[in-house]
Amino acid sequence: MNDKNICDDPCPIARCLAFLGDAWSLLILRDAHFGLTRFDQFRKNLGIGPAILTRRLATLTAEGLLEKRLYSERPPREEYVLTAAGRDFLPVLFTIGAWGRKYRGEGRLVRILDAETGAEIRPVLVDEVTGIKIGDRPICIAEPDGD
Amino acid sequence: MNDKNICDDPCPIARCLAFLGDAWSLLILRDAHFGLTRFDQFRKNLGIGPAILTRRLATLTAEGLLEKRLYSERPPREEYVLTAAGRDFLPVLFTIGAWGRKYRGEGRLVRILDAETGAEIRPVLVDEVTGIKIGDRPICIAEPDGD
DNA sequence: TAATGTTACTATCAATTTGAAAGTAAGTCA
DNA sequence: TGACTTACTTTCAAATTGATAGTAACATTA
Question: Which UniProt keywords apply (chains A, B) (predicted)?
């Protein structure tokens, strides 16, 4: 995709997808949310080639979703941890997972639980004000005003 | 990405991303939600090359998010409309947009409104049972039982 | 009837990206 | 001294993308 012009696109979906719109980046973020932080953990868990992983981690770091942190001085070793922006990406992963569960849910699937209560989490997207489920009512789009 | 083995992955996020994990597919779905249905509408609005658009529409159709519908017999013309699975993808687009608005929201952005009330929609992801916002509590993952 | 337009593509091809495998750098450990 | 660990880089064939041009089937206009 031609990222350059998409960054100026007035659509926030396009702006997000300009650099996060690929499967590896999202799977890295998923693993980061499940507690992975190190290069080799991501590499082994995803089965991704190291060159691609290097590039994806660099992009996610440059875009502010991950940050490098030194976890050992001797030998010098760095790991990748989620930033606030990275942590705020969790709802995206959850909604993707909810769709996958509903439409590609054949066979055994992992479930996501509340770490303290152990209850399974069932995400629903609602309007913050009205509480109405997204998708239950027709929507339209408002262009940015003025020029 | 090597889609083949990912389809058997027990993670619903991975299963969804196996064929929808690229920016063009998501932008096509976004446009479909905003009412576009025809090849040339997508092509012009996205500035995507026709060969890539053809392939993406074929995948989205094969995967059951869009379906072809004849809208003219003479000349024979087909358009692409969202299926139930495609319509259920809306929350994914909304959460991506919400992240983009928060972290890439410089300058003017389009907004999404309730088509009837005109009120701006502000999506939040909550747990269906408890109503607690996703991200406010720590999570853990449960592997599928048995074997 | 001929020329032009519309729509949904296919064909071509250079440039970029991926995927797989091997190699490397800076250390530690026995 | 030699093996091991971790986080990469290098290499290169194969696949995918992006840009552009062309085509097929019809309708419309002159």
Answer: DNA-binding, Transcription, Transcription regulation
By the CB < 8 Å criterion, does B70 face chain A?
no
Length of chain B: 147
- What is the pLDDT at residue B4? 59
A84 Cβ contact partners less than 8 Å away, ≥ 6 residues apart: none
CA-CA-CA-CA torsion for B94, A123, A103, B90, nearest 10 degrees?
A: -10
Q: How far is the CA of B29 from the C1' of D24 (A)?
A: 28
Phi first, then psi, for residue B125 (nearest 5°) are -95, 125
> Which residue is listed with tokens 């190190």?
A38
Q: What is the pTM of this model?
A: 0.95
Q: Is A53 on the interface with B (CB under 8 A)?
A: no
Q: Which tens digit of pLDDT belongs to each residue from A98-137?
A: 999 999 998 889 999 999 999 999 999 999 999 999 999 9
**Closest-CA distance of chain A to residue B78, Å:** 24
Interface mutation vs chain A, best among B96, B109, B113, B117, most A CBs within 10 Å: B96
- Angle ∠(A18,A21,A25) on CA atoms, nearest 5: 120
Whether pLDDT at B108 is above 80: yes
**A47, closest nucleotide (Cα–C1'):** C19
More confident residue, A143 or A49: A49
Closest by CA to A92, choosing from B72, B10, B125, B117, is: B125
- Token pair 């507690």 is found at A35
Of residues A65 and A3, more confidently modeled: A65
Residue with tokens 């490098």: A68
The set of strand C positions with any atom below 7 Å of a protein CB reads 6-13, 18-23, 26-28
* Residues of chain A numbered 17-46 and touching chain B (CB < 8 Å): 17-18, 21-24, 26-27, 30, 33-34
